[in-house]
Specification:
Keywords: Aminotransferase, Pyridoxal phosphate, Transferase. This protein is α/β, with parallel strands linked by helices and about 375 residues long. It folds into 2 domains: about 120 residues, Aspartate Aminotransferase, domain 1, CATH 3.90.1150.10; about 230 residues, Aspartate Aminotransferase, domain 2 (3-Layer(aba) Sandwich). Helices cover about 40% and strands about 15% of the residues. It is built from 15 helices and 13 strands. It has a 7-stranded mixed beta sheet, with helices on both faces. β5, α7 and β6 form a beta-alpha-beta unit. α2 packs across α11, α3 packs parallel to α11 and α4 crosses α10.
């Protein structure tokens, strides 16, 4: 008898990013779907990795992350958010932010717990919750603005609610948390046992004079939070899959119990390189203005088409409506654009557990200008 696996994710298939990127390759389409830059990362950072390997830094580093890197992150957090976190007790380097999110859920959740998830939501959230025997309680963000619906959120909290998951700047919409959102989170979590999981991988990709409101800068929220970040999104090296989690000591202690038996540690030479590169504050402080230029350039090009932009204040992405072009479902529209016009996008309906059709697609504008120009040239044939 050949053994079979009883799936822990029976409803899960291949991720939409893999599906659309494979389709893009098959049809030689310009891939504005998956969120990665097609321009070179900073050569100085690459050289620092090579130097670290040549200098012999090729063995295990500390389980919690290279101490000098954690110290550099702690200094950055204190400077940006006024929070004097402990490099030793509150920061752990991880193989990517997705790993950090999963580890936080695993450390915190028990079977039967509920987690509030705002949709559209990045596709790793709900599987991570379900794999830990918990239930994702999904709440739709307001269509168009993608603001948190406070009344729906308050009504969704039950004795089983264990945590609230937030993401700002938001993927896929580019929406950002405002002060009224922070006040609401403070109100609904005060004098409760609720945790907050905050996905802040796009912290520096923020536009139009907006400020990133990190959970780290609000002590009454941070005391109950796991906050995750990504170096890949900051330094245009998404394939490095290197990030970190920040949490109060008691929470981080439980996080590290899981981490030590899973990844244990992260690629060493990259950690040495990042520790040195973080000294150049301009590299991350100027990132928002550089990416805003790309967003604006793409938006100006897209003004020639029939697609209508929705506001994007951060991230790599902008959502566009095709409501005045077609009545097709979002997945069908995305497939047709790839096959017939050679431009790949992501249907926003894929960011819902049960697809919601608003006739919108996600475009990644973190590309070379020539890539964006070629994509819009093809879209003009629609």
């Amino acid at each position: 008898m050949i053994p079979t696996i009883q799936s822990k994710l029976p409803q899960a298939g291949t991720t939409i990013f893999t599906i659309m990127s494979t389709l893009a390759a098959e049809h030689n389409a310009i891939n504005l779907g998956q969120g990665f830059p097609d321009f070179a990362m900073n050569a100085a950072l690459s050289e620092l990795v090579s130097k670290a390997m040549a200098d012999g830094h090729n063995q295990y580093v500390h389980m919690n992350g290279l101490p000098v890197l954690r110290e550099a992150i702690a200094q950055k957090i204190k400077q940006l958010y006024g929070n004097p976190v402990s490099a030793n007790d509150e920061i752990t380097i991880t193989p990517g932010a997705t790993y950090a999110l999963y580890t936080a859920f695993t450390a915190m959740l028990q079977p039967g717990d509920e987690v509030i998830v705002f949709e559209p939501a990045y596709d790793c959230y709900i599987p991570a919750i379900e794999l830990n025997g918990a239930k994702a309680v999904t709440i739709p963000l307001t269509p168009g603005t993608y603001k948190i619906d406070q009344a729906l959120t308050r009504a969704a909290i039950t004795p089983k609610t264990k945590a609230i998951l937030i993401n700002s700047p938001h993927n896929p919409s580019g929406a950002v948390l405002e002060e009224d959102d922070i006040a609401f989170l403070t109100d609904i979590t005060s004098n409760t046992n609720l945790f907050i999981i905050s996905d802040e991988v796009y912290e520096h990709l923020i536009f139009d004079g907006k400020k990133h409101l990190s959970i780290l800068q609000y002590p009454h929220l941070y005391e109950r939070s796991f906050v995750t970040f990504s170096f890949g999104k900051v330094y245009n090296c998404t394939g490095w899959k290197t990030g970190y989690c920040v949490a109060p000591p008691a929470l981080m202690k439980e996080f590290r119990k899981i981490h030590q038996f899973n990844a244990f540690t992260v690629f060493g030479p990259v950690q040495y390189a990042l520790a040195a590169f973080l000294k150049d504050e301009a590299e991350y402080l100027e990132l928002g203005s550089r990416l805003q230029q790309k967003r604006d350039y793409f938006k100006n090009l897209m003004a020639q088409t029939k697609f209508e932009p929705l506001p994007s204040y951060g991230s790599y992405f902008q959502i566009y409506s095709y409501a005045n072009i077609s009545d097709e479902k979002e997945y069908d529209m995305a497939v047709r654009l790839t096959k017939n016009y050679g431009v790949t996008t992501i249907p926003v309906s894929a960011f819902y557990k049960n697809p919601v059709e608003n006739k919108v697609l996600r475009f990644c504008f973190s590309k070379k200008e020539s890539t964006l120009e070629a994509a819009v040239e093809r879209l003009l044939k629609l």
